[in-house]
């Protein structure tokens, strides 16, 4: 039976999540994802004999483009119990999810699916593949990365890092200051700069609170980027130490003037501020951020994330990757 979520389903949904993805998810994290992070969510499940064996959902977000408001949905956690695969359940839940999007008046459904899921989304939901989002990497401490690959180099890791420290920008006019409870500053920044960007999820103070500061398990660092004592943007960082000992900082979000030179200076400030061995960041091709990343010493290393949409507006106004402003914050898993 294909149906909508009912209170209490979250236990079965999390059990299915663990079985499919081989990792646990707490009730608190489920609540953040489906009750706190988005403005609301719609969940479709497949149930047989009281067991949830399929799941598809979309998280609803307010989006803006040149002052125009749209309703977006992010497709998430589309999964089928391995013991029930091959019975058409995947197609059924995706089809029902698409029907719910139309019924609720969504303008656009988007996602970053794996290749097999992408093909189903395009076939069943009538989605469109807009291409892959580039990922950039900057290395602050190459000795740490080399030592992680070749254990013998650990003895000379510090000298290597010192020798290559010239690659880390020495100057920037911005500096980072912890946002703390200054959410009104984020509101001000969003009001100043949002019309400079193509279509994007609304990134005001409430968004920062729900998306990052309320997360039950991940520790995000939110900073204003300040210049001459005034906030000129904000950034969200998440640092993670891998099993090999290398620390990566992800620039999950960066918002301020959509100006290449200013973004490059802000990125340099972030590189100088973080103690991470390396940093990564996304940017839509040929955007001011894309060019700024190169100016700040980042390298385009790959384009791992396909971006697909289902446009219910029928206008064709959002059918190119350049029509969007995207960062890792647009993916619930970052």
TrEMBL record:
GO MF entries: acyltransferase activity, transferring groups other than amino-acyl groups
PROSITE patterns, per the entry: GNAT
Domain N-acetyltransferase, chain residue ranges per copy: 1-152
Pfam families given in the database record: Acetyltransf_9
Record protein name field: N-acetyltransferase domain-containing protein
């Amino acid at each position: 039976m294909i149906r909508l979520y009912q209170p209490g389903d979250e236990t079965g949904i999390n059990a299915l999540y663990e079985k499919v993805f081989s990792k646990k998810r707490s009730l608190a994290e489920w609540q953040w994802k489906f009750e706190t992070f988005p403005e609301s969510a719609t969940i479709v499940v497949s149930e047989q004999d009281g067991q949830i064996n399929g799941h598809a959902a979309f998280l609803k977000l307010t989006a803006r483009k040149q002052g125009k408001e749209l309703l977006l949905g992010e497709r998430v956690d589309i999964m089928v119990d391995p013991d029930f695969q091959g019975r058409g359940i995947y197609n059924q839940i995706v089809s029902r999810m698409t029907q719910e999007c139309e019924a609720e008046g969504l303008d656009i459904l988007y996602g970053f699916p794996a290749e097999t899921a992408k093909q189903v989304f395009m076939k069943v939901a009538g989605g469109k593949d807009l291409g892959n989002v580039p990922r950039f990497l900057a290395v602050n401490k190459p000795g740490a990365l080399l030592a992680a690959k070749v254990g013998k180099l650990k003895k000379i890791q510090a000298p290597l890092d010192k020798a290559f420290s010239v690659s880390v920008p020495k100057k920037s006019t911005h500096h980072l200051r912890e946002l703390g409870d200054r959410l009104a500053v984020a509101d001000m920044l969003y009001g100043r700069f949002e019309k400079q960007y193509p279509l994007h999820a609304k990134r005001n103070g409430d968004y920062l609170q729900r998306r990052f500061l309320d997360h039950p398990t991940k520790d995000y660092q939110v900073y204003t980027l300040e210049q001459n004592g005034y906030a000129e943007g904000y950034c969200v960082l998440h640092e993670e130490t891998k099993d090999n000992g290398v620390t990566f900082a992800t620039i999950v979000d960066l918002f301020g003037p959509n100006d290449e030179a200013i973004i490059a200076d802000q990125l340099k400030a972030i590189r100088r501020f973080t103690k991470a061995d390396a940093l990564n960041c996304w940017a839509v091709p040929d955007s001011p951020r894309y060019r700024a990343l190169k100016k700040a010493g980042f390298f385009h290393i790959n384009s791992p994330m396909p971006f697909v949409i289902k446009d219910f507006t029928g206008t064709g106004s959002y059918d190119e990757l350049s029509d969007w402003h995207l960062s890792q914050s647009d993916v619930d898993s970052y």
